[in-house]
Automatic annotation (TrEMBL):
This is DNA mismatch repair protein MutL. Keywords: DNA damage, DNA repair. GO terms for biological process: mismatch repair. The lineage of its organism: Bacteria, Pseudomonadati, Bacteroidota, Flavobacteriia, Flavobacteriales. It comes from Chryseobacterium arachidis. NCBIfam families: mutl. InterPro entries: DNA_mismatch_repair_CS (IPR014762), DNA_mismatch_repair_MutL (IPR020667), DNA_mismatch_S5_2-like (IPR013507), HATPase_C_sf (IPR036890), MutL/Mlh/PMS (IPR002099), MutL/Mlh/Pms-like (IPR038973), MutL_C (IPR014790), MutL_C_dimsub (IPR042120).
């Protein structure tokens, strides 16, 4: 039998390796930006066309490469950052594996122009599909200029799996933000199809966050700082009102490198315990500085996971430091263990042992009722209510084993047949049936039915007495440009007043001024709208949520009575479209057996 195992040709091996390193245009953006930082650049420009599918260009003013280094950079496992095995365990640079450029060149057309500051001329290299084409001297600026064209042109099966431009560009923005946030001392620019998306100047960490995510975030940020022997922690967390249902604005960095860690995210979440509504996650930008020998960044092809030697200690550090900062800024209760010196002086003056004739200071006594049960009162109230209800219904209801079904909708006289419970639900008695109602869910169905005509061209506008201003970040500006064509026919009148400020002059009839900002934020929050129908579906859903009330908002009986009438007109449906109940029948035979 002949031998069947053979060495793969280099270009095939590079294409296979590229599958780990190059998943989409954003993967290339990450590698090239990190290379520019490692090259000592102070100014980095990223130019994108068609969300990176046709062009990704990174221009930097770093130290550049020599003629030989420029050629060697595209060889597999060629790197300037590792010389021996020991270097792997103390990596301080972004790139180090020596396979990124080879992988990128294997699935695209790559051109590099680079020049060192002391060199008279630079080098121009062109590689196509992993095959070297030429290398010539060229007049070019100091630093490096990488152009990656026609990604996956030679691997059409990979190219067809790329998402549409909106999705791919959002991934590019994600990578750009991660790099830019960690290096506020560098200038960054991002251009997409000739439009300037970001122009980030050098500045403080706070300034960089605000430049990326918009000025409206600044008042919400709380500084975080802790410096101990083995670790430094600094950054910002947003106040509880800055929390979101999505995990978009959660950033962890170690030694200037972005990484993902559900474990550390949990530490931050625990620090906000009791401060966030269910389903919401905090916004944070946290930076760790640790000895490189205490971490391992070589456990993931995209280098987005990091292994820590003392992760349990870091977990505790994150949680305790954030809790303390929330306390300092009066976001959560905090104990102050530092004694007030004025209190000591007062005690000295009033103590008889000092011989100053002062009276004694009696310390307050704390009396604890050890028999107190915080749930007893609530339980007793509930028992009394149930007993009263039972007596009332025993007088008016003939309980039978098989209660007859009646028409709930023909009599509009509620009289004493409606009662609000302390937990926000309502009891509704009609004939032989008693129902427990969730008025919030019922109201949502009524609103959904009444707002179905919210479609393009059918909604009246309500002019605002004073225009509102919505400060957009760059992502929201991009999202606004993609949906602004729908908004006028939905009843909105708005325009970009200056820079990133959206001026709102009119809103759809029925949308309160206090709801406008949150409504727009929700529209901009979704990743993408694949079609007009998808946008309209999401818009309708948000509109219904804005108009809906919680069951706790129905306090007055007359409001509940009107809602039940409206709900009755719909046929008294038992379930929401998502399967949740609007009401259920209370079996009073079960109550009778308890007495």
């Amino acid at each position: 039998m002949s031998d069947i195992i053979q060495l793969l040709p280099d270009h095939v091996a590079n294409q296979i390796a590229a599958g780990e390193v190059v998943q989409r245009p954003a993967s290339i953006v990450k590698e090239l930006l990190e290379n520019a930082i490692d090259a000592g650049a102070s100014k980095i420009e990223l130019i994108i066309r068609d969300a990176g599918k046709n062009l990704i260009q990174v221009v930097d003013d770093g130290k550049g490469m020599s003629e030989t280094d420029a050629r060697m950079a595209f060889e597999r496992h060629a790197t300037s950052k590792i010389r021996g095995t020991e270097d792997i365990f103390k990596i301080a640079t972004k790139g180090f594996r020596g396979e990124a450029l080879a992988s990128i060149a294997a699935v695209s057309q790559v051109e590099l122009k680079t020049k060192q500051k002391e060199a008279a001329v630079g080098t121009n290299i062109y590689i196509e599909g992993g095959v070297f084409q030429f290398q010539d001297p060229v007049q070019t600026a100091d630093g490096s200029n990488f152009l990656v064209k026609n990604l996956f042109y030679n691997v059409p099966a990979r190219r067809k799996f790329l998402k549409n431009n909106n999705v791919e560009f959002r991934h590019v923005i994600d990578e750009f933000q991660r790099v830019a946030l960690a290096h506020e001392n560098l200038e960054f620019s991002l251009f997409h199809d000739d439009d300037a998306v970001f122009r980030l100047r050098k500045g403080s960490q706070m300034q960089r966050i605000v430049d990326v995510f918009g000025r409206k975030l600044q008042p919400q940020l709380i500084p975080i700082k802790e410096d101990i022997i083995w670790c430094k922690l600094h950054g910002y967390v947003a106040k509880p009102e800055g929390a979101k249902k999505t995990r978009g604005e959660q950033f962890l960095f170690v030694n200037g490198r972005y990484f993902k860690s559900p474990y550390f995210n949990k530490a931050v979440q625990e620090a906000f315990e009791g401060l966030l509504l269910p389903g919401y996650v905090p916004t944070f930008f946290l930076f760790l500085e640790i000895d490189p020998e205490k971490i391992d960044v070589n456990i993931h092809p995209q280098k987005t996971e990091v292994k820590f030697e003392d992760e349990h200690l870091i977990f505790a550090l994150l949680r305790s430091t954030i809790k303390r900062s929330l306390g300092i800024y009066n976001i959560s209760p905090s104990l102050d263990f530092e004694r007030d010196p004025h209190l000591d002086e007062m005690m000295q003056k009033t103590s008889p042992s000092k011989g100053n004739g002062g009276g004694t200071l009696k310390m307050p006594e704390i009396i604890v009722d050890r028999d107190y049960n915080p749930f007893l009162e609530e339980r007793e109230v509930a028992q009394v209510e149930i007993q009263n209800l039972t007596e009332m219904y025993h007088q008016n209801i003939n309980i039978s084993a098989e209660p007859s079904k009646i028409n709930l909708f023909e009599d509009e006289d509620f009289d004493e047949d409606l009662m609000r419970l302390p937990n926000g639900y309502w009891l509704f008695n009609k004939g032989d049936e008693t129902l427990m109602l969730d008025l919030g869910r019922m109201h949502r169905l009524v609103v959904a039915e009444n707002t179905k005509p919210v479609k393009r061209g059918t909604t009246n506008s309500h002019a605002l007495l004073f225009s509102l201003e919505y400060h957009m970040n760059e992502i929201e500006k991009n999202k606004y440009s993609s949906i602004k064509k729908y908004l006028p026919e939905l009843g909105f009148e708005m325009s970009i007043a200056h820079e990133s400020v959206l001026r709102i002059d009119a809103v759809p009839e029925g949308l309160k001024e206090t709801q406008v900002m949150k409504f727009l934020e929700n529209l901009f929050d979704i990743l993408e709208y694949k079609s007009e129908e998808e946008f309209m579906h999401f818009y309708q859903n948000q509109w219904s949520k804005m108009q809906s009330k919680s069951r706790f908002d129905f306090i007055y009986k007359k409001d509940a009575e009107q809602l039940i009438k409206d709900f009755t007109a719909l046929g008294f449906p038992e379930f929401l479209p998502n399967g949740k109940r609007c009401f259920f029948e209370i079996p009073f035979n079960d109550f009778k057996n308890k007495f």
